[in-house]
Design goal:
By secondary structure, the protein is an alpha+beta fold. Helices cover 27% and strands 24% of the residues. The strands form five sheets. It has a six-stranded mixed sheet with strand order 9-18-17-16-12-15. Helix 7 packs across helix 8 and helix 7 packs across helix 9. The longest helix is centred in the last third of the chain and has 17 residues. It is globular, with a radius of gyration of 26 Å. The N and C termini lie far apart (54 Å).
Length: 428
């Protein structure tokens, strides 16, 4: 019996994937759950396991092909016998590198090699069992144009001869891509881009293009409103200082972000309309509280998800944040890590600004943007008198979808987050 393997749904907003690298060839035997192909999306790069054991009889897509979710990409026959015969002419042929694969390599390393034009078959792996590591690829890059790097650019002209300016025609051919606008029609038109010396045209990467499309879709779909709050973190800071040394001994970094996430998760339980999504003519209050955390990577933002966040202690939240952030930056997130969020939080990090309103991450109805934490002079009441004190203060901005969320609920939700943080009301 032959089983058609289809492009999986790799994230809730992903509608297609790119064939990055075939890990098998026609005629090869595979075991169930053995990786057969690397799939690339704007969210993550993942290895797709074989759904059944058998022999690969057809590859229905070539490397770099973009395939819609649900469309077939290969066929595995559970009753066929393995053979060394080549693939039929009407099937995409596996590249030469697939026939002689490099030593075991992680998806993130293969991705780096593709981006840097490094031939993994010529790279000596330094990891266990000859595994090619990130540093091995970087070493191959630094040793170019020796073996391990595919030369893609001609050598520069001699230093004594000044480089000739780029011809106007090729630049003009690229310019339309940078001036095309998907905005509304009307009398206004963008002025055409005129190339000038020193300008650099940077093509959108696959991930940046899809991020851009998502942001435009969100702004055009959701009538969003932003509301702000100021939060005195003094009591939370005292609680953090009392326990952060012990947490550090246990290998846990006790950050303010963990407290903010925990407070948000509790508030979402109390304001379920914020934890929802819009349908065609209704909206659904979601049973699970799964908070997505925006993580900045070299290729742009990704939003890995902490599932059932409302059931976690501060320690559990802190561990989960460290785990997903590390895997996001190393390129080791799975499709499951990026799906199912019901609310999102954007954290500016140590070099953030006062506060800012974020764009809602669809299909959620709200997103919380945390501001930077600064020591400020605040007025406190002590024994009936108003006194000045220096406390850590953070501003927060809640962007919400006014189709579902009214101002009274948005304000109450943001107030409740501030209240939990100001009272330091947490279970560690």
């Amino acid at each position: 019996m032959a089983t058609k393997v289809t492009m999986p749904q790799l994230g809730e907003s992903v509608v297609e994937g790119t064939i990055g690298k075939w890990l098998v060839s026609v005629g090869q035997s595979v075991a169930k759950d053995e990786p057969i192909v690397e799939i690339l999306t704007d969210k993550a790069d993942s290895e797709l396991p074989a759904p059944v054991a058998g022999v690969v009889t057809q590859l229905l897509a070539a490397e770099d092909d973009i395939i819609a979710v649900g469309d077939p990409i290969c066929e595995i026959d559970e009753n066929a016998q393995a053979t060394a015969a080549a693939a039929p002419a009407n099937e995409p042929e596996a590249p030469a590198s697939a026939a002689s694969p490099a030593p075991p390599t992680s998806p993130s390393v293969r991705k780096l090699a593709r981006e840097k034009d490094v031939d993994l078959a010529a790279v000596q792996g330094s990891g266990e069992g000859g595994r090619i590591m990130h540093d091995d690829v970087m070493d191959a890059i630094s040793s170019a144009p020796g073996p391990g790097r595919m030369a893609t650019t001609p050598p520069p002209p001699p230093a004594a001869v000044p480089p000739a300016p780029a011809p106007a025609a090729p630049v003009a051919q690229r310019a339309p891509a940078t001036t095309t606008s998907s905005g509304p029609s009307g009398a206004f038109r963008l002025p055409p881009y005129v190339p000038k010396p020193g300008d650099e045209i940077v093509p959108f990467t696959r991930r940046r293009r899809i991020i851009a499309d998502h942001m435009v879709f969100s702004k055009q779909t959701a009538p969003d409103v932003v509301t702000f709050a100021e939060c005195d973190l003094h009591r939370t800071a005292v609680l953090r200082n009392q326990h952060k040394a012990q947490f550090k001994k246990d290998g846990v970094n006790l950050t303010y972000l963990a407290f903010a996430i925990a407070a948000t998760a509790r508030a979402l339980r109390e304001f379920p309309e914020i934890n929802s999504r819009v349908l065609d003519d209704a909206f659904v209050k979601l049973a699970e509280v799964n908070i997505g955390i925006a993580v900045d990577t070299d290729e742009g933002l990704v939003v890995p998800v902490i599932r059932n966040t409302d059931n976690l202690t501060i320690r559990g939240v802190a561990r989960a944040v460290a785990d997903v952030a590390e895997r996001a930056r190393s390129g080791n997130l799975t499709p499951n890590d990026l799906s199912g969020k019901t609310f999102a939080i954007s954290n500016p990090g140590r070099r953030g600004n006062l506060v800012g309103g974020a764009i809602i991450s669809q299909p959620n109805v709200a997103i919380l943007r945390l501001g930077t934490i600064k020591k400020r002079v605040v007025v406190i009441e002590h024994e009936g008198e108003d006194l000045m004190a220096i406390h850590p203060v953070m501003h927060m901005a809640l962007t919400y979808d006014h189709r579902v969320v009214d101002g009274v609920h948005a304000n109450g939700f943001l107030y409740r987050i501030s209240e939990i943080l100001e009272y330091g009301d947490f279970e560690l």
